[in-house]
Amino acid sequence: MTFNTSLPYQIIAQSDYQRMPWKNGLGETLEIQRHEDESGLRFRISQASVVEDGVFSDFSGLHRTLVLLSGEGMTLEHAVKNNSHTNKLSNALDIARFSGGDTTYATLKSGKIEDLNIMVRETDTHANVQAFTAPCSLLFSNNSTLFSNDDFLFCGFYVCEDGMLEIENTVLTISAHSMVIFSQNANTKLTKGSGVFINITELD
């Protein structure tokens, strides 16, 4: 990942996200970040609106983490072979985790919702996804070489609502739906708003 700044972070505005159609043709997504290698898609982070009930696209081989950003919520029913389970997203920042290969049916509670979707390859990649509300600190690894290790793939903070981040004593006002990508450990505090911290690494 190439950074165009010497700062320990880079801010990507929503206007810079790539607009793409859904795999099933029933909507579109704003792609925030993606990484591919010789084996195909390694991870993808995207933002999308769900406007009607329906079956999710099949993403077999990928693990999905879905965060509710806005709306009245939805229920996800997952079926794989003879097993089934349900995720209910009722409030902003609720999180669902499931296999992209599950047959997943979404039922909206009352009108459209907006979500953040993090997908990683199940065989070799792990996504640690946590929701935060101000005031709080974002805790990085104590290992100062975290961002130079081979197991590091991505570390960023998605801003859900207009907020303020204090990074290494610099206070930043950041617009909603922007992504802050970190290139190294940084003393970071969320002083206003809420967001989603995403750390993607090699699977042990």
Structural topology:
Elements: E1 9-12, E2 18-21, E3 28-37, E4 40-50, E5 54-55, E6 62-70, E7 74-80, E8 83-89, E9 95-99, E10 103-108, E11 113-121, E12 125-133, E13 136-138, E14 152-159, E15 163-167, E16 170-174, E17 179-182, E18 188-192, E19 194-202
Low confidence ranges: none
Q: Helicity, in percent?
A: under 10%
Oligomer kind:
single chain
Structural class from helices and strands? Answer: mainly beta
Helix and strand element order? EEEEEEEEEEEEEEEEEEE
- What is the straight-line distance between the termini? 21 Å
Mean pLDDT: 89
Count of helix runs: 0
Rg calculated over all Cα atoms: 17 Å
Net shape: globular
Q: Indicate the proportion of strand residues.
A: over 45%
Number of strands: 19
Strands ordered across the widest β-sheet: 2-3-4-11-6-9
Q: Biggest sheet, in brief?
A: 6 strands, antiparallel
